[in-house]
Amino acid sequence: IAATQPSTDWHLKENAREHHTSKFSSEELIVRRGQAFTITFNGAERPEQNFIFIAETGPKPSKTTKTLATFDISSTVSKEGWSAVLQSSSSSSVSISISSPHNAVIGRYRLSVQSGSSSPQSLGTFVLLFNPWSSGDDVFMPNKAECEEYVLEEFGIIFAGNKNHISSFGWNFGQFQGDILNICLSIMDRSLYYRQDPVTDVSHRHDPRYLGRVLSAMVNANDDQGVVLGNWSGKYEGGKNPSSWTGSGEILQSWKKSGFKPVKYGQCWVFAAVLTTVLRCLGIPTRTITNFSSAHDADGNLRVDEFYDADGNHLERGADSVWNFHVWNESWFTRNDLGPSYSGWQVLDATPQEESGGIYQCGPASRHAIKEGEVELDYDGPFVFAEVNADCMYWNYDSATGKKTLIFSKATEIGASISTKAVGRDVRVDVTRDYKYEEGSAKEREIFKKARKKLGLEDKFDPTAPKQEEVEQKPDISGKFKVAGSLEVGKDLNLLLVLENLQSDAKTVNVNMTAWSTLYTRRRVNQIWKDSISVTLAPKEEKQFPIKIKYPEYQQQLTTDKTIQVTALCHVEDGIQVLVKRNITLDNPAIDIQVLGEAKVNKEVFVEVAFTNPIDAEVKDCVLQVEGSDLLQGILELRIPPLKASEKSSTKFKLIPSEAGPKHLLVNFSCDKFADIKTFKMVNVIN
Predict the structure, then answer these.
(1) N or C of the chain: less Cβ packing under 10 Å?
(2) How far is it, in rounded angstroms, from Cα 687 to Cα 668?
(3) Which fold has domain 474-585?
(4) Residues annotated in a binding site for Ca(2+)
């Protein structure tokens, strides 16, 4: 007679508490590797001394690929493999403590028990994750507060804007919500690596370096029908504008619901935020990093070329570009392939910019290797090094003759104010010094030369380019744009063009000025304004020229990135041209959140969101979107009636918090005149 199926008590609460997995809302056991967990089962044949346990994962489990383990009851925990230690037994049940090795493959396991010669009986399934709390794990993070932030925190702040004017917005990573863990496991099973060779792919899932690279490819849709489809056109029909998302949950759920079709649309911070969610969910400490004035060096020569026509218009020539900001990830793990000094934070980038190994993936690149110019070390060192270090070359290009003339070059332009959220606090931390030595210092130039040498770019300029055009001449005048007044959508934009004569004789200058609305990648979208002036500067004279661009002039042309590039190309008579440019990011008007009363677990609390229309025209199509892990389920969407000029709207809704502690509420308000006004509020929930 066949034995009855054993019934298993997985001790979900106790094991989750021990393994830092209490935040998952799952009926399945979720534990971390290299640490014991306890189960009790009954109905298995006895005696327990003869029990053999079988833990297996993946499509074709085997001992050689470390995806199958068989182990019997022993008196001590094994240092190498899986082990089981008897905790207690009674006539009807047995309690066993099971330990996995520090380098076990992560994923969903099937556990069964065999007694004597009978066939194995299933005890059920459990999920095994990375363990940053365990000193033997490749992702071990000694600082507990950092573990809390980089693995357990579901709220993040992403920095944006530009280096003169850094802005930020909240993001709900939501790695412990609903079905996110299962979606993360299915992302791994849909990668190109898995499709080509499932057995080998699963056997590599013990290695955070391998998974980081695979997941950087899977978060973008290129090559593999991954999670998010990028779109940098400024037109987002058929999908959501990248700046309208407030969290990863909605994106990952949509991907699964659609039968794993890429979600439309993402830009860099969306890719980085989704990758943060997936890696934190699997137990790899991860954070988002924003690099201001970020270079996209397409041809690998560690320099970025920008072209302008005689009117000062920025031309789309060549594949290089400089973005106002770019967001990528850092994940924390050891680099056994490179050596101990290269362990720690590793750069991963899921934004599809350049292929690596034939597909759009990037990293892991050791942050220490980038700082030291060790660009030959795996993976993608030259690309990441250029993002923070490339030199900028500005050219005047004559489309009629094809002639290009160097206006000037700048070695200190790229890689400014590299930023991330502080541990345990909602403020910005600057990590620029962790990526490079002080800009302009001898050490920084030495590292730059070292990197160029390693890439075979010995001399200062590209050896294939004609030399004479690359000689920089000293300009006769200098110029800059100054902001006068506030930079706010809905208000006029007031600037000053400041020109200074550096010489001791008078100079006549013809200035062609343009202003374009751009994307945050500085891609031009619409021309807003142009003007030209002719000025004479007395010896050593400085003059200021006010520029006003009225709100109605730019309102229709502005992109949802709210960025404008202003340029002035100054043609000095009998001298060389001088290019003056500035990228401006406008702020949205403010929105206010008030929590009305005390927030308690499982009790209703009301929240009020207020917005005042700052312009003298009606705004309509107003929508308020609200989300926040442990504060409300999913996303709340509220339609708000049109607002007349200067009218204030006040919207109330209720939350029922499900867990105590500091939680974050994220709000996104949009209407026909203002896109995606974001804010967040910390809500302290008490029991």
Answers:
(1) N
(2) 28
(3) Immunoglobulin-like (2.60.40)
(4) 389, 391, 439, 444
